[in-house]
Amino acid sequence: MLYTIEKANEFIRGNKETTGKKFYPDYHFAPPIGWTNDPNGVVIFNNELHLFYQHYPYKAEHGAMHWGHAKSKEGLHWQDLPVALAPDQDYDKGGVFSGSAIEKDGKLYVMYTGHLPDETDETKTRQNQNIAISEDGVNFKKYEGNPVLTEDDIPAGTSVVDFRDPKIFEKDGIYYSVIGSKTLDNKGQVILYHSEDLLNWEYVSVIFPYNPYLGTMVECPDLLLFKDKAVFILSAMDYVDEKGKVHSHISWLIEGEMDWENFEFQQTSIKEMDNGMDFYAPQTVKLAEERYLAIAWMQNWQANRPTYELGHNWFGQMTLPRMITAKDGELQQKVPLKIFDLIKI
């Protein structure tokens, strides 16, 4: 099937009324039809909260990923917007995988992973990083210089098969991107790149080298910078705890410090970000100093999928937005009574 934004939006318009409403959430965001997993591009643009998300509109199951799109004024009620990205280029034809968004000069830039699977030989699967730009926050044009990062930009000893989920942030006028990765012997790690213009990227370091908490692969890494500490939020695959139990997917909140001379994160403490069964791939946007907003996929890969099995034509939803703050040296998470307070700057 040849995927395009136009086909996706036409399908959604013509079929969204078939979505079963029995279990459809009132406040947690869910797709108008079809499948969703990771939140992508959580960003404030034109004083509204924008949420992009992994989306396959044609079935309530994982398929060739698109980027769905919605926005909200207060974080509870969402307005569906047209599909932002489709896997319509040679470099992303297997799926427009997860990524992030940032505003620059009044434009919205997104960085995402292009997926190129090889169904006959997994070792030949490749993933790359790409840029798309929007003047209005709704309609995106993919950068003609894509892909901006390929297997040629991956450090030695690192898998070229699993290289995904770029999260952009800015510090002191330089743009950085942390990307999930693993070593050749299946040990999770996070890689750092930098750019002056969001278009030309260079490798910097393995910012977060392997330790056992990172499992066999890191997905959806996100670096939060507070006044007195740095915090990594990330999701790890196949973490084995001290009792030998394998956690196939787990999301960590890891406190530490950044060594900016060597571009390496130094961990000081770690805890599970959410103890619920259904919480994965959280992503944040910085609202102000010492304050971030986070949204996660309120699901996991091992869960039952009743809305799919019952033919309701949708699957997956997001957590309510939560605020992450650092107060008196202590990291706090909470969902305020007034969600609007999260995005009011």
Write a compact overview of the structure shown.
The protein contains three helices and 21 strands. It has 345 residues and is mainly beta.
Number of strands: 21
CATH class: Mainly Beta
Q: What is the residue-mean pLDDT, rounded to a whole number?
A: 95
The best one-word shape is globular
What is the percent of helical residues? under 10%
Q: Separation of termini? A: 43 Å
Strand content: over 45%
CATH architecture: 5 Propeller
Number of domains: 1
Number of helices: 3
As for the CATH topology, it is Tachylectin-2, Chain A
Instruction: Provide the low-confidence segments as ranges.
Output: none
Computed structural class: mainly beta
The CATH superfamily name is Glycosyl hydrolase domain, family 43
Adjacency order of strands in the biggest sheet: 4-3-2-1-19
Supply the key terms.
345 residues; mainly beta; four-stranded antiparallel sheet; 49% strand; globular; beta-fructofuranosidase activity; Glyco_hydro_beta-prop_sf; Glyco_hydro_32_N
Structural commentary:
The protein is built from 3 helices and 21 strands. The chain is mainly beta and 345 residues long. The chain has a single domain (96-343), classed as Glycosyl hydrolase domain, family 43 (Tachylectin-2, Chain A, 5 Propeller), CATH 2.115.10.20. The strands form 5 sheets. The chain has a 5-stranded mixed β-sheet with strand order 4-3-2-1-19. Strands 5-6-7-8 form a 4-stranded antiparallel β-sheet, with no helix packed on it. The N and C termini lie far apart (43 Å). The relative contact order is 0.14. The model has no long low-confidence stretch (mean pLDDT 95). Its EC number is 3.2.1.26. It holds the Pfam family Glyco_hydro_32N. Residues 28-334 form the Glycosyl hydrolase family 32 N-terminal domain. Keywords: Glycosidase, Hydrolase.
